[in-house]
Automatic annotation (TrEMBL):
<dbReference type="InterPro" id="IPR011012">
    <property type="entry name" value="Longin-like_dom_sf"/>
</dbReference>
<dbReference type="InterPro" id="IPR018240">
    <property type="entry name" value="Clathrin_mu_CS"/>
</dbReference>
<keyword id="KW-0472">Membrane</keyword>
<keyword id="KW-0813">Transport</keyword>
<keyword id="KW-0653">Protein transport</keyword>
<dbReference type="InterPro" id="IPR001392">
    <property type="entry name" value="Clathrin_mu"/>
</dbReference>
<dbReference type="InterPro" id="IPR036168">
    <property type="entry name" value="AP2_Mu_C_sf"/>
</dbReference>
<dbReference type="GO" id="GO:0016192">
    <property type="term" value="P:vesicle-mediated transport"/>
</dbReference>
<dbReference type="GO" id="GO:0006886">
    <property type="term" value="P:intracellular protein transport"/>
</dbReference>
<protein>
    <recommendedName>
        <fullName>AP complex mu/sigma subunit domain-containing protein</fullName>
    </recommendedName>
</protein>
<dbReference type="InterPro" id="IPR050431">
    <property type="entry name" value="Adaptor_comp_med_subunit"/>
</dbReference>
<dbReference type="GO" id="GO:0012505">
    <property type="term" value="C:endomembrane system"/>
</dbReference>
<dbReference type="GO" id="GO:0030131">
    <property type="term" value="C:clathrin adaptor complex"/>
</dbReference>
């Protein structure tokens, strides 16, 4: 079960960024881009099926897509026996990661941070299989864009801000490296739940009988 690749389309339907489709022909991603643009052009309300069937000489395939804000679209061409929910889960995860790194996702923000987006693609999708998807681990590998990074790159200064030399040293992927606490303590919230059957006793005043 693998994803053939990922394509980011601009609002005008042209690709702005895409992964390297190693196992397919050069025309393979273009077929899915054309299939999406044709379906969108035929739609009267701008709504199309989230999974599009694509027919070509190499065999049938599908194009899964989601909206990425600002009119951008994320496309995933897939072939073979691939669960669509598996693809959409990765698309949503990549969208959330882009939003976490760039803030507002737009054509201009993607162009300004081409290097960061391509690094995320390389780390998150390895030969069609999701690889590093935990954001704490990603931030140790791919530095988030910042004004300081831009200034250093323009000035030609390198080595002042770089990722961890051993990003996978933490045994817990969601916990950042170097976190220490003064007190070795742990706290628990206990919730007690008592389930019982209580008999009702009736007291009878015999004097009134």
């Amino acid at each position: 079960m693998a994803i053939d690749g990922l394509i980011i389309l601009e609002p005008n339907g042209r690709p702005i960024i895409q992964t390297n489709f190693k196992t397919t022909s050069a025309a393979y991603p273009l077929l899915h881009i054309d299939a999406f643009n044709n379906a969108l052009a035929k739609s009267t309300n701008g709504q199309i099926d989230p999974v599009l069937y694509v027919s070509a000489h190499h065999g049938p395939s599908a194009c899964c897509h989601i909206e990425c804000g600002g009119g951008l679209r994320l496309l995933c061409p897939v072939s073979g026996d691939v669960d669509a929910l598996y693809v959409f889960a990765f698309l949503q995860l990549f969208h959330d990661t882009l939003q976490d790194y760039l803030g507002e996702i737009s054509s201009s923000s993607l162009r300004d941070h081409f290097d960061v987006v391509y690094q995320l693609l390389e780390e998150m999708l390895d030969n069609g299989h999701p690889l590093t998807t935990e954001r704490s681990a990603l931030r140790d590998i791919v530095l988030p864009p910042s004004l300081l990074d831009k200034i250093l790159s323009v000035a030609g200064v390198s080595g002042l801000a770089k990722a961890s030399a051993n990003p996978f040293a933490s045994p817990i992927p969601w916990r950042k490296l170097g976190i220490k606490y003064n007190n070795n303590e742990i706290y628990f919230d206990l919730v007690e739940d008592l389930r019982a059957i209580v008999h009702k006793f009736v007291k009878i005043n015999l004097k009134n009988l």
